[in-house]
């Protein structure tokens, strides 16, 4: 059965090539076969079959249609994707096309600038009232295809706008909010900011209605505004800012690409440390908590940098690991150690990290040696207290003996007195009664007396010594001396 069909655009042609791109193929990825023959009058040649091929692999990306719009410092470009409206050749590849643009001032073709743009994009950093020319070509990265350049298009930028557009748009993450900033030198101006999804740029056509107003960034008079983090879903977005002065508004600023993953804040981890024994501490790292007591959701894996040191030393020990449990052995008993940590992104391309956590300190438990010294110290303290009490007691006795003596004389003295003892043997008072004592100088008599009464003399000497020791003379000695004197006087009279 003959299934060959006539190919539109390639019938009865005089040249050696034909264009059949207008043919509506059902599937450009299926292999097709062609055959050709020559005709001259009523005579024809035999059919020559062409090697089978897949249309998509043989298709050429042709020149593009481009539409331009001018601003004072920018040009808006609209590119029609390759292929016709009804063609299915590039229908599935429209989002994958990348457009390469070459632009230059019409007055100087040497100052060319090459940029990669989307099908609808804006070219910034141009001069007002200047003619610019450009050309564009389409490319496919996979499979690798490079199209033909479009014709050259030229356009004049407008005169400088009365209200200039804001410049240097920046957005940063601080704590749990985003801060959007821009530069603007004119006063009495209000601003508003909008955001849109980045993926819309890859879809051909205008998406001006997809821009959304950013909360807290409408009719603001400052060159910044604070945006809650929950305003933006996860992903890549574009942000633009516009200035207004009364009824006049500026063009939109240059669009700033904003990746929430790059701006996501990594909060410091929560650390707990526990002493296991006298020479080991265990450190646990937990995820930070939000106000709703939910774990902070990180979009990429984290590793932890832990810094450990003795509280009285500046020497630090650093550990960088993915795990969340750390053990530090070979430590000193009864010693305070401190630790702090921060979270880092595991992938170096993000290069993000949190601030360090609060410092946590813990004291190791006492060891066996420490317990022995503790017991010895307690025993030494108790012994010292006992010795101190004994020494104080002896000192008090000495003080009482010297400064506060007893009123009763010693027993060795008391047995030689018939009268009650005096109150103070060291100090005599005026009230103490004494008797007169007469001394007779007669050596012969005394010698006789000494010979006849040796016992009394010894007695007298003893009493005299005893009296000297006590500080007073005995009454008994005085009476006996008085009697001897009377007897001697009577003998002399006779």
What is the radius of gyration computed over CA atoms, rounded to a whole number of angstroms? 60 Å
Give the proportion of residues in helices.
10-25%
- Please state the structural category: alpha+beta
Low-confidence stretches: 291-297, 422-430, 443-483
Shape annotation: elongated
Number of strands: 27
Distance between the termini: 205 Å
Share of residues in strands:
25-35%
Query: Roughly what is the average pLDDT, rounded to an integer?
Result: 79
Count the DSSP helices.
7
Report on the biggest sheet: 5 strands, antiparallel
Structural write-up:
The chain is an alpha+beta fold and 494 residues long. Helix content is 19%, strand content 34%. It has 7 helices and 27 strands. The chain has helices at residues 55-58, 260-263, 368-403, 411-414, 443-452, 454-470, 475-493; strands at residues 32-36, 39-40, 43-44, 48-53, 65-70, 75-80, 97-105, 108-117, 120-123, 131-140, 145-146, 153-156, 167-174, 177-183, 190-197, 212-220, 224-228, 236-245, 248-249, 256-259, 270-277, 280-286, 302-310, 316-321, 325-328, 336-345, 360-363. Strands 7, 8, 10, 11 and 12 form a 5-stranded antiparallel β-sheet that branches. Strands 15, 16, 18, 19 and 20 form a 5-stranded antiparallel β-sheet that branches. Strands 24-23-26-27 form a 4-stranded antiparallel β-sheet, with no helix packed on it. The longest helix is centred in the C-terminal third of the chain and has 36 residues, at 368-403. The protein is elongated. The model is unreliable at 291-297, 422-430 and 443-483 (pLDDT under 50).
């Amino acid at each position: 059965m003959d299934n060959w069909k006539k190919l539109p655009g390639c019938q009865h042609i005089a040249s050696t090539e034909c264009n059949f791109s207008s043919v509506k193929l059902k599937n450009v990825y299926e292999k097709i076969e062609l055959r050709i023959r020559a005709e001259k009058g009523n005579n024809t040649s035999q059919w020559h079959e062409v090697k089978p091929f897949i249309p998509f692999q043989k298709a050429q990306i042709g020149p593009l249609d481009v539409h331009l719009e001018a601003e004072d410092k920018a040009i808006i470009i609209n590119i029609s994707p390759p292929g016709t409206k009804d063609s299915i050749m590039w229908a599935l590849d429209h989002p994958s096309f990348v457009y390469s643009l070459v632009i230059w001032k019409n007055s100087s073709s040497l100052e060319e600038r090459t940029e990669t743009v989307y099908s609808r994009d804006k070219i910034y950093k141009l001069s007002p009232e200047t003619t610019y020319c450009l050309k564009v070509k389409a490319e496919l990265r996979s499979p690798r295809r490079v199209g033909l350049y479009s014709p050259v298009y030229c356009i004049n930028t407008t005169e400088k706008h009365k209200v200039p557009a804001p410049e240097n748009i920046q957005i940063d993450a601080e704590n749990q909010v985003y801060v959007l900033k821009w530069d603007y030198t004119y006063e009495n101006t209000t601003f508003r900011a909008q955001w849109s999804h980045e993926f819309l740029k890859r879809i051909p056509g205008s998406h001006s209605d997809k821009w959304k107003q950013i909360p807290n960034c409408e009719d603001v008079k400052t060159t910044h505004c604070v945006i809650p983090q929950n305003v933006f879903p996860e992903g890549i977005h574009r942000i633009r800012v516009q200035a207004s002065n009364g009824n006049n508004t500026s063009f939109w600023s240059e669009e700033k690409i904003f990746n929430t993953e790059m701006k996501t804040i990594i909060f410091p981890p929560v650390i707990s440390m526990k002493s296991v024994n006298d020479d080991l501490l265990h450190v646990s790292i937990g995820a930070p908590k939000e106000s709703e007591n939910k774990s902070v959701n990180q979009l990429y894996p984290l590793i932890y940098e832990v810094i450990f040191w003795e509280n009285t030393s500046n020497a630090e020990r650093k550990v960088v690991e993915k795990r969340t449990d750390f053990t530090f052995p070979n430590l000193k008993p009864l010693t305070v150690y401190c630790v702090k940590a921060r979270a880092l992104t595991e992938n170096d391309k993000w290069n993000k990290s949190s601030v360090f956590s609060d410092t946590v300190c813990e004291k190791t438990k006492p060891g066996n040696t420490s317990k022995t010294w503790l017991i010895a110290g307690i025993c030494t303290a108790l012994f010292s207290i006992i010795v101190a009490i004994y020494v104080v007691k002896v000192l008090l006795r000495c003080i009482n003996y010297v400064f506060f003596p007893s009123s009763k004389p010693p027993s060795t003295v008391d047995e030689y007195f018939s009268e009650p003892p005096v109150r103070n043997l060291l100090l005599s008072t005026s009230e103490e009664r004494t008797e007169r004592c007469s001394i007779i100088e007669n050596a012969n008599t005394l010698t006789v007396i000494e010979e006849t009464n040796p016992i009394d003399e010894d007695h007298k000497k003893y009493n005299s010594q005893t009296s000297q020791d006590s500080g007073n003379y005995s009454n008994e000695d005085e009476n006996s001396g008085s009697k001897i004197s009377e007897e001697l006087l009577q003998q002399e009279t006779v």
